Amino acid sequence: MKNLPPLVPDPVIEAYKKDVDRTLLRENLKLPMEERLTRMYKFMREMDSFRGSARRSPGR
Amino acid sequence: MTPDIPAILKLLASAGVEFVLVGGVAGIAHGSSLSTRDIDVVYRRTPDNIRRLAEALKPYHPYLRGAPAGLPFQWDATTVERGLNFTLDTDLGPIDLLGEILGGGLYEDIRPSSDLSQTFGVTCRVLDLPTLIRVKRAAGRPKDFEGIAILEALLEERQATELKRPDPVRSDDDSTT
């Protein structure tokens, strides 16, 4: 799959790109891969925990 | 359930499974800020590798994701050989085992477009960023548009950083003068 032609910009993707938070990406790029994966894994675990709490809350 | 990314990568790599990390987790590995609900790997479809893969996952009770409970689904090398792509729930979280991916092909096709990475104490292959973008584009799923935009922005940021980085050869020359 090497030596493929460069990616041609897709207008739909370009429209989405305007909303991308690049400061977050720049911060991520400073981290080693393991740290990126660990941070995202912890974040997703916390989100699971929040969802579980919300489901168990008496107001629902 | 969130996939236990460290445990899954350690499990597959330590079992000697030949695979390339693709999908959302590969995006995160490259710096994407988009979370994902599963881990996608393209595995090599050789008998030995299929056996290693089946044996490694067996203790974690793989079962077809979304399928009703109680189906006579048996997880072993024969099942993997008879199928191709498996979306599984396991005790380690959701895992997508892909024999082939749209826009990428088989393990052998995408391996040259992957990088060896040291992470969580093991070495694993991660699909490189330009190929990850191509594969996601080829899938053409509207739900991927935001993810593709993030990956393309990442590629641009990375290229901009590389352009700004001083030329190491020139730096050495400067230090001697």
First-to-last CA distance of chain A: 51 Å
Question: What composes the largest sheet of chain A?
Answer: none
| Percentage of residues in strands of chain A | under 5%
Radius of gyration of chain A: 18 Å
Task: Extract low-pLDDT stretches of chain B.
Answer: 169-177
Order of helices and strands of chain B: HEHEHEHEEEEHEEHHH
Strand content of chain B: 15-25%
Note the total helix count of chain A.
3
Oligomeric state of the chains? heterodimer
Shape of chain A: elongated
Percent helix of chain B:
40-55%
Structural class by helix and strand composition of chain B: alpha+beta
The residue-averaged pLDDT of chain A reads 86
Element-by-element helix/strand order of chain A: HHH
Explain this structure to me?
The complex is a heterodimer of chains A (60) and B (177). Chain A is mostly helical. Chain A has helices at residues 11-17, 22-29, 33-56. With 177 residues, chain B is α+β, with helices and mostly antiparallel strands. Chain B has 8 helices and 9 strands. Chain B has helices spanning 5-14, 23-30, 47-57, 77-82, 107-110, 129-139, 145-164, 168-176, and strands at 19-22, 39-43, 63-64, 86-90, 93-98, 100-101, 105-106, 114-119, 122-127. In chain B, the strands form 2 sheets. A 7-stranded mixed beta sheet of chain B has the order 3-4-5-2-1-9-8. Residues 169-177 of chain B have low confidence and may be disordered. Chains A and B meet through helix 1, helix 2 and helix 3 of A and helix 2, strand 8, helix 6 and helix 7 of B.
